Amino acid sequence: MPTITESDRIAGLFIVVPDVHGDARGRFIETYRRSWFPNGGREMVQANRGDRQAGAVVGLHYHLHQADYWYVPFGRARVVLHDLRAGGPTDGATLSLDLGGDEERGVFIPPGVAHGFAALTDMTITYLVDSYYNAADELGVAWDDPVIGADWGVSDPILSKRDLDNPTRSDIPEGRRPAWPMRT
């Protein structure tokens, strides 16, 4: 049975350590099951895959309506999570954790929690989402905001124009900052 633990830093964020089964042929890992999460979790409707080269930084992104579940089957990533939900019990908390490599675990990210990752090696990330792509719900906050204080684990990050242009936490436009409790 996998170990599912709610983060003690960010409310509603869950870390999954799956069971790993292996023999001479290789290994098998069940990486996600909806029933692992309270109230049956959220129904995931889309699966995505991203391949990144070492040094790439993606994020910090957030959604007002969408939850994500991340897993890294190849390589290693440093994941940074920051709670933007104004008025929530963990508003302003930042959590960093490594996925992939020897760290066989996944992470469930609720709406309103900014999320990003740095490729510590060449890597692949898979992520499930509970709603289809919606450009109006694709938001971001500066990856290098000193208030967030993210430790990305890379010295010369490779970033997209979108991620370079994201506002700092204090400059998020009115109405674009998540509020607690989140309504989807």
Verbal overview:
With 184 residues, the protein is mainly beta. It has 1 helix and 13 strands, in the order βββββββββββββα. The protein has a 6-stranded antiparallel sheet, with no helix packed on it. A 5-stranded antiparallel sheet has the order 9-8-11-6-13, with no helix packed on it. Strands 3-4 form a two-stranded antiparallel ribbon. Strand 3 and strand 4 form a beta hairpin. The two termini are 30 Å apart.
- Oligomerization state: single chain
Order of helices and strands: EEEEEEEEEEEEEH
Extract low-pLDDT stretches.
Answer: none
**Separation, N- and C-terminal Cα atoms:** 30 Å
Specify the helix fraction band.
under 10%
Structural class by helix and strand composition: mainly beta
Number of strands: 13
Shape: globular
Largest sheet: 6 strands, antiparallel
Beta-strand content bin: 35-45%
What is the topology, as strand order, of the major beta sheet?
A: 1-2-10-7-12-5
Radius of gyration, in Å, reads: 16 Å
